[in-house]
Amino acid sequence: MATKITVGVLALQGAFHEHVVLLHQASTHLASVPAVDWAFVEVRTPEQLLQCEGLIIPGGESTTVSLVANRSNLLDPLRAFVKVHRKPTWGTCAGLILLAESANRTKKGGQELIGGLDVRVNRNYFGRQTESFEAALNLPFLKDNGGATELVPFNGIFIRAPVVEKVLPTVPGEQTEEGARDGTVIAPARKSLIGARAHKPVEIMAILPGRGRALTGKMVAVDEEAGDIVAVRQGNVFGTSFHPELTKDPRIHIWWLERVRKDVLEQKENL
Fold first, then answer.
1. C-alpha angle with apex 13: 110 to 72, nearest 5 degrees?
2. For the purposes of burial, counting CB atoms within 10 Å of the CB of 129, is it exposed (0-12), middle (13-18) or buried (19 or more)?
3. Catalytic residue among 18, 53, 245, 258
4. Per-residue pLDDT tens for 156-209?
5. 144 in Cβ contact with 255 (< 8 Å)
6. From start to end of the chain, where are the E strands?
7. In 3D, which of 218, 194, 210, 185 has the Cα closest to residue 89?
8. Is 93 a residue of the active site?
9. Long-range CB contacts (within 8 A, 24+) of 126-131
10. CA-based Rg of the chain, rounded to a whole angstrom?
11. Kind and range of the H or E element at 212?
């Protein structure tokens, strides 16, 4: 009998429909054993969130999303989903900002965070909408999709994108030192019910080298280690600066759904 897994896409603002389309496409590529009956839903209420085993927070405008989530009584349920129950969650662009424990270039009281990733993000790092760009990204973690030996670069679409400015120490409560910084907001603490899964370190999943080349089209010698961090993972929480949902490439969605499937089946085995 197939295991039903429901994945939600937060549908308050931004590119949520595009994520749903790619999720459906990605699910057809998964040779899941045991079989999985995938369901994909748009999430606008706490009741819809409760149905979900995994969640995507799409790109859009992070301040608007947090404001609408608060007015919809979704902000605290989202924090519980991510930080208390540590369910698989993926944030793209604005979603990465919301999942960060710290965000700078932010007015106090103007941005609420969900948290879940012990990182500081720099909002709108690449500038205005007119400075949006695309760049070929090397994503080694995609080799997990069937053990590919040759990895085709992923086309990263960056639109007023944030970057991970700093990986923070893993702490059980609030990032209080970050809260003392000017122009920086932090996420409120939530105690995880999952124990060790809450204290995994942050993994850097992708670096964009040569920012100058990406923005200007000129060749710039930049060491890869000096590049910008554009994808991170901490346990079940994953964030990307760029917009995979705006491409027709389902590879990251395939990889992430496989992570969701493994988590759900592990939880069932532990019951």
1. 70
2. exposed
3. 245
4. 999 989 999 999 999 888 898 888 888 889 999 887 766 555 678 999 999 998
5. yes
6. 3-10, 36-43, 54-57, 89-92, 100-104, 117-122, 133-137, 154-158, 163-167, 185-186, 203-208, 228-234, 237-240
7. 194
8. yes
9. 126/158, 126/160, 126/161, 126/163, 126/211, 126/215, 127/160, 128/160, 129/159, 129/160, 131/215
10. 18
11. helix 211-216
Residue 74 exposure: Cα atoms within 13 Å on the Cβ side: 19
- The string of pLDDT tens digits covering residues 52-82 is 999 999 998 898 999 999 999 999 999 999 9
Q: Which two tokens stand for residue 100?
A: 């960060």
Active site residue 52: no
Active-site residue, 245 included: yes
- DSSP 8-state symbol, 214: H
| Active-site choice (52, 101, 243, 258) | 243
Residue of 93, 112, 165, 178 marked active site: 93
Token pair of 236 as six digits:
């079940």
**CA 233 distance to own-chain centroid:** 8
Q: What residue type is assigned to position 184 of the chain?
A: T
Q: CA-CA distances (angstroms) from residue 216 to 93, 161, 210, 213, 261?
A: 21, 16, 10, 5, 41
Place of tokens 């902000």: 75
